[in-house]
Specification:
This protein has about 425 residues and is of the alpha/beta class. About 25% of the residues lie in helices and about 20% in strands.
Amino acid sequence: MSWQEDYKSKLCTPEDAIKSIKSGDHVFFGHCVGESQLLVNALVAHAEDYRDVTIHHMVTLSPGVYTRPEYEKNFRCDLIFCGGGTRGAIADGRGDYTPCFFHEYPILIRRGVIPCDALVTMVSPPDEEGYVSLGTSVDYTYQSAKSAKVIIAHVNDRMPYTYGEKLHVSELTHIVEASEELAENPGLKCSEVEEKIGSNCASLIEDGATLQLGIGGIPDAVMMFLGDKKDLGIHSEMIADGTVALFEKGVITNAKKNFDQGKMVVTFLMGTRKLYDFVDHNPAVEVRPVDYVNHPAVIMKQHNLISINSAIQVDLQGQVVADSMGLKQFSGVGGQVDFVRGAAMSEDGKGKAIIAMPSLTIKKDGTRISKITPLITEGAAITTSRNDVDYVITEYGIAQLKGQNLRTRARRLIDIAHPDFRAELADEFEKRFRQKY
């Protein structure tokens, strides 16, 4: 049987496809833009057919309807990253959070530590040899496909075909065809504070450096100040639209990368249609599994790698909290520690790991809170340890911490804190170290 015949034989409706999921199964959803809202909605619409189905994923761009109280007996999420649609379920005990470095997620799936019975995901149309691409999200999704007994694939002609790992039609259990616009994140205009942080970060980036950047105001601001750089490369957990602009300007060439030369290597991506069209059938971009892209042993081999990540708070010892607010789980570790450690172990000794954040958090009621604090909030989990932290950057400057004693760290962090909070931080410094700040 040809792959075309095989493909046609597996075509079905969303309702028929999800019948292969059974009560008690562990079901993985494709990550981020790769999550099929069509199939997720079908699953929720037939919730009464299921009991105790555990759902695994990282970032979801959906409202997370399956986590609502009315579906508590049907579905329970168990996540290594939570967002707006899933935080409530974890906080209320209807869902679980599993601490996990992003690069280890596929390894845990492969070993069966985290079971995977079924994968529900979006893919591109097949190529001439019958291979579909996971498009925007290869990350843990590829390993889920290799481990799952059932693969339900939503073939969407709007999903870009990206190079890297692929799946053959013969590996798919059910195929649902439907054309849907992909979720987009156009980003927002950078604030003045973000621009100052971006400028400070860019000052540490040399020509020929390879970058790991995320999404949001600060990464966007960093890219605003890279226009005069030469031969930058990308080896990053993800990319967004700003990367395309720098590639088109000739700033990003990947020419100086010492391996995967000439290619941007990422594990997932999220942006606008411009980004999705850019990566479609583009040999300059490879979307690879996260146990390759984010593995510190791979990252350390990339010369002059600069990693930029964010934080919720940093204490005067340099401990970084990036995924929880007290006992409340806010997001996840993601790839922060993967890249911090990979950069620190860089074979050429030029790697830099940057934690970049505004000096203040401003709450909805206008309350201002310093993100540089004497102590971590009670119950909060340390994301990046004080032993790992390298650079901390705010709009007020750069604090280089690696190799520095606690007294020097505290002084440097106070220097880049918001001026309105420096006096009370200085008081803590004097109590702790018994000397004038």
